[in-house]
Amino acid sequence: MRGKWYLTAAALAIAVGVLTQVQASAANQPGRENVPPEKIEKIAAALPDTPYAEPAKPRKMLVFTLTKGFRHASIPLAAKAFELMGEKTGAYTTVVSDDIQMLRPERLAEFDVFCSDQNTGNLTTDEQLKQSLLDFVKSGKGWVGIHAATDVGGWKFPEYHEMIGGVFAGHPFRRISVKLDDPASPLCTMFDGKGFEISDEIYTFRSPYSREKLHILMSIDWEQANIRQGGNRADNDYALSWIREYGKGRVFYCAFGHDDQIWWNPVILRHYLAGIQYAAGDLKAAATPSAKLTVAPAHGPELR
Questions:
Q1: Are the CB atoms for 243 and 250 separated by under 8 Å?
Q2: What is the 3-state secondary structure of 102-125?
Q3: What is the tally of structural domains in the chain?
Q4: pTM of the full predicted structure?
Q5: Which of 33, 58, 237, 258 could connect to 201 by a Cys-Cys bridge, CB 3.0–4.6 Å?
Q6: What's the confidence (pLDDT) of residue 32?
Q7: Nearest residue to 287 via CA among 279, 299, 298
Q8: Where are the alpha helices (DSSP H) in the chain?
Q9: Is residue 119 one of the residues assigned to a domain?
Q10: Residue 3 counted as domain residue
Q11: Residue 86: phi, psi to the nearest 5?
Q12: Is residue 13 one of the residues assigned to a domain?
């Protein structure tokens, strides 16, 4: 009897140990790291209630979290925010993955939008997978990029750089004044026609960035921000959010997302929702390159 009890206790200990290992492994999966309950509560409280446009059909977004370069701690926050936002608004459903095989054409075909949740580094050398992602967008689907999604210089994939519209050049700024370059865009209605102040790790971009190709939604208001040094562009043109058409598809990028508090900023979350719905094809917006337009911007506050 005693022997049976000993074996049962030993088996139970082994089972508990295995379960603990499984839970730890799940918690450490890239993009699936545990988000503290208090942060989930903050995200949930900041989410929009309704979509900006009724989906033409049920939409599905792949939130891709793979990194081979620097890994941002805010990746799981963004994934959780988008998952909860889709559930609450009904605008889309979400699958979160870091599996490179999700880029296979038959897998991507399940989705309407590919979201680069701060993918960095050389994600793959498989030319078929790389082409599959381009073909996905060209065919009429959508691409959404968060913050470090433009940190792809190490990925020898110039066609992808061209599609997303710019490559990370540095982050010399933090507290900035933001100008709405197109305050009338459906993707900017949440700002009520006013520029604003924000603090985050602010990215800057190099070629292929160009207003000849991109419809800029917002940028650093250089004069209002009173920035005197630290810039890395001679033209002081520091875009923060843009859209573009690519083949039959649509691209949306927003530079905000490094700091945790971005993911419970209700206005920025609404901007991301509008961008996702634009990429999915449900929210219609003109993507004429900014260089071909004359639009009166909405300036941000003057900073001291």
A1: yes
A2: HHCHHHHCCCCEEEECCCCCCCCC
A3: 1
A4: 0.89
A5: 258
A6: 57
A7: 279
A8: 2-27, 37-46, 75-89, 105-108, 127-138, 158-164, 222-225, 266-280
A9: yes
A10: no
A11: -65, -40
A12: no
